[in-house]
Design a protein that fits this description.
The complex is a heterodimer of chains A (95) and B (332).
Chain A: H1 2-25, E1 67-68, E2 75-79, H2 84-93
Chain B: E1 2-6, E2 10-17, E3 20-27, E4 30-33, H1 38-47, E5 53-55, E6 61-64, H2 66-74, E7 83-84, E8 87-88, H3 95-107, E9 115-121, H4 135-148, E10 151-157, H5 158-166, E11 174-179, E12 184-190, E13 193-200, H6 204-215, H7 219-228, H8 240-264, E14 277-282, H9 291-301, E15 308-313, H10 320-331
Parallel strand pairs in B: 1-9, 9-10, 11-14, 14-15
Antiparallel strand pairs in B: 1-2, 2-3, 4-6, 5-6, 7-8, 11-12, 12-13
The chains are: A mainly alpha (95), B alpha/beta (332).
């Protein structure tokens, strides 16, 4: 009989402790996880992830030290094709 | 307005003038010679007279374009490229500087403030994932350089530009495949809207590299032999180099068509086309004899999931992408 009472007291203590612990872990107002009072992962409780912009930055491309030693660069060609029809057709199709 | 094809092997500028299109092509290559003494410097400079070269602040000479390739072959060496596999090369220390110099020279200053220029960028490859391939960074570099020339730059996908240039008679519906030196770019277009774009990182340079390994020659030597064009894909050749080139061409086409079939099979964004499609192919790598025939055979053998009306080569394979960029500059 005494053993049964001990078991019931233990179970009640566990339930009360569990509920109190759970309530203290998360600030209900903003959903921010208290990392000092729990081992549970924070990821599930934050709805949107914040990313840092890791794109490479284009630093200055200095070409001033390069001295040109020629007159003309590249090969020029002229095509008599008229691209105005293609332009108009594409403009219409993209409207 | 202008269109600019920023390719691994060629940079092509297209401008419209009095109902004609003017193209300026420049080979995207450089070769550095560093003199050891002041006397050697004078001798080298004299020897380079008439060639396209620049002198760097450290005294070295940098040959540009075709002259760079010729000089590299003379010295049994390989010319360098400011670009690798479709984007600014992370391998070459001077890549950004040289590319900036070449682009500024080819594009020139904008004819009016904020003149619109559309340049091409590759799609994300399906066969490579590493930090060296960064399309966004590449795009930012080109934009920075062109902005310094007074342009208002905007990018477009390379194969999308090809579709704009070549699919007007098909209501801008079909598939464009741009076979450049560094990459093969693909765009599936429906009524002027790109629906699927992707790329593979194996193209002309891969053929050069593999043939060079097989024959023990320099890449530049293989490239020069290949570009002379004295071979037909799928046919035997007396030259060891061209024989290897022909075999690697077959493997490249097989690889490209397999990737094409795999990428489009069950693709969620792929529209349900009512009519059979036209496939248009462009780029320097597609100019080899027998390319179109072998490509057609290979696409049939590799289970291409869509009905094909015809497979054709672009009317001007080296200029199509630049022309598409020029068209885009007036529409987008």
């Amino acid at each position: 009989m005494i053993e049964n009472i001990d078991i019931i007291i233990c179970i009640n203590c566990f339930i009360i402790g569990y509920l109190l612990g759970k309530n203290s872990k998360i600030d209900q107002n903003n959903g921010v996880y208290d990392q000092y009072t729990s081992k549970k992962s924070t990821v599930d409780n934050i709805s949107t992830k914040i990313h840092i912009d890791e794109r490479k930055v284009v630093s200055e491309i200095d070409t001033k030290g390069l001295e040109k030693k020629y007159s003309e660069i590249g090969e020029d060609t002229v095509s008599k094709e008229d691209i105005s029809n293609s332009i108009n057709k594409l403009k219409n199709i993209k409207k | 307005m202008a269109g600019l094809d920023v390719g691994t092997s060629y940079i092509v500028l297209a401008k419209e003038e009095q109902n004609k299109v003017l193209y300026k092509d420049f080979r995207d290559a450089f070769y550095t010679i560093k003199p050891t003494t002041p006397v050697a410097s004078k001798m080298i400079e004299k020897g380079l007279s008439g060639r396209t070269f620049i002198k760097d602040s450290d005294g070295s000479f940098i040959l540009l374009g075709k002259d760079a390739i010729e000089k590299a072959i003379e010295r049994n060496d390989t010319a360098k490229r400011p670009m690798y596999r479709g984007v600014v090369s992370a391998k070459e220390k001077d890549a950004k500087r040289i590319l900036a110099f070449i682009l500024k020279e080819v594009a020139g200053q904008a004819s009016e403030p904020n003149e619109k220029i559309v340049f091409c960028v590759p799609a994300q490859p399906v066969d490579q994932e590493d930090d060296d391939f960064d399309v966004g960074y590449h795009e930012d570099i080109i934009k920075t350089i062109l902005s310094e020339c007074g342009y208002q730059p905007r990018s477009v996908n390379e194969a999308e530009a090809l579709c704009y240039a070549e699919l007007a008679d098909n209501d801008y519906t079909g598939i464009g495949i741009s076979c450049g030196a560094g990459m093969t770019n693909v765009c599936v277009m429906l009524n002027g809207e790109p629906t699927v774009v992707f790329s593979t990182t194996k193209s002309g340079d891969w053929i050069d590299r593999m043939s060079a390994i097989a024959t023990g020659e320099q890449d530049s030597v293989v490239q020069a032999e290949k570009e002379n064009g004295n071979f037909t894909i799928g046919q035997p050749n007396d030259s060891q180099i061209l024989s290897a080139v022909s075999v690697y061409y077959e493997r490249l086409i097989d690889y490209t068509t397999k990737n094409l079939s795999m990428a489009l099979a069950n693709h969620k964004s792929l529209p349900k086309f009512k009519e059979p499609l036209t496939i248009v192919i462009a780029g320097g790598t597609s100019q080899a004899k027998g390319y179109l025939e072998y490509f057609t055979k290979s696409i049939e053998n590799n289970g291409f999931p869509l009905k094909i009306k015809e497979i054709k080569q672009a009317s001007d394979p080296l200029h199509s992408v630049a022309k598409g960029c020029l068209i885009a500059s007036q529409v987008l």
